[in-house]
Design goal:
The protein is α/β, with parallel strands linked by helices. It is 36% helix and 18% strand. The protein is built from 13 helices and 10 strands. It has helices at residues 28-43, 68-75, 93-107, 139-144, 152-163, 167-186, 212-216, 225-230, 258-264, 289-300, 317-327, 340-343, 347-365, and strands spanning 4-11, 15-16, 52-56, 84-87, 112-120, 247-257, 270-279, 309-312, 369-376, 380-388. Strands 1, 2, 3, 4, 5, 6, 7, 8, 9 and 10 form a 10-stranded mixed sheet that branches. α2 links the parallel β3 and β4. The longest helix has 20 residues, at 167-186.
Amino acid sequence: MATAVIVDAVRTPIGKGKPSGALHDVHPVDLLAHSLRAVVERTGIDPAEIDDVITGVVTQSGEQSLNIARRGLLAAGYPESVPGVSVDRQCGSGQQAIAFAAQAVASGAADVVVAAGVESMSRVPMGSAAFGTENLNGQAFEERYPDGLVGQGISAELIAARYGISRTAIDEFALRSHELAATATKNGLFDGELAPIAGLTADEGIRTGSTLDQLTGLRPAYFDESIARRFPEIDWRITAAGASQISDGSAALLVTSEEAAARLGLRPRARVHTAVVAGDDPLLMLTAIMPATRKALAKSGLSLSDIDLFEVNEAFAPVVLAWQQELGVDLDKVNVHGGAIALGHPLGASGARLATTGLAALEQQGGRYLLQTMCEAGGLANATIYERIV
């Protein structure tokens, strides 16, 4: 079996997903093409060598419909002979693209694959793929869950209540994310992974100079009277500050076999050591990162103490804090350059963005292993372990 390696990883700066955001006027096909073009330019590979382009994208409607991977690679100038496919594992789509690329390489089905992710949340509204749908779930699903599921914000509130995560802890974690991201930006720690686009040279959502007092004055974002009656244990601790930002962005990674890298004169940065997926309670929805982490460690033969850095998607602050509490991970190893609360969460791109940022941080700190995990709608999670090549 071949070993899948990551030769390089690049991302756009992340723009605010608003009409005033810097990337609002960038079509998602062009947004994806920018990262696809950048990863080829950085590595110097002939794009005719690419066997497939696997792209994560969540809201596959409007401008992101009809297999954006294919349109994106053609817009990037790749030969017409290069195929592409779009995948949807909700927020983990970009991370799943990396896993699928690694599996294709390891199996021998492909030698060179680009794994990417894209989402323009300002141009393609979240959830718009289901607009106009009268019954999304069908009879059998509703019979299994007669009380219905809830939105992710409510799931995060349920997690906060179950794990006893206070409003103060949530606000402090949110502030930490912005402070770490601001420091990383100031010190140029993102520079090597960024491909500026449309005049945007740095992540747009970082709030420098935020204070805890400012965050404590914000109102809960997800209060709902009917939900409050159904779940009286919720005391509404999460504000907009404790949730990931709606954003625009893309990222791309070049994944090859070790043999192909040697043949093409490429120097790999990391091995894809282990990649797993897991499921958990769809009501709590965001807790599957816990069994996914355990599954990845068991499959890899590694322990938590072997992992130098962790990238855990900051969909909501309580998700990361509950994971950290349950597993006993040192928070100083988690999201060391901030996370989605500060940087943003362009859904389909985030898995590829976390890998790009995490690998750069691993190199900067001289570590060996990075574990990345991301919660996903429906009670799913990906977990991937990367091993840096020295």
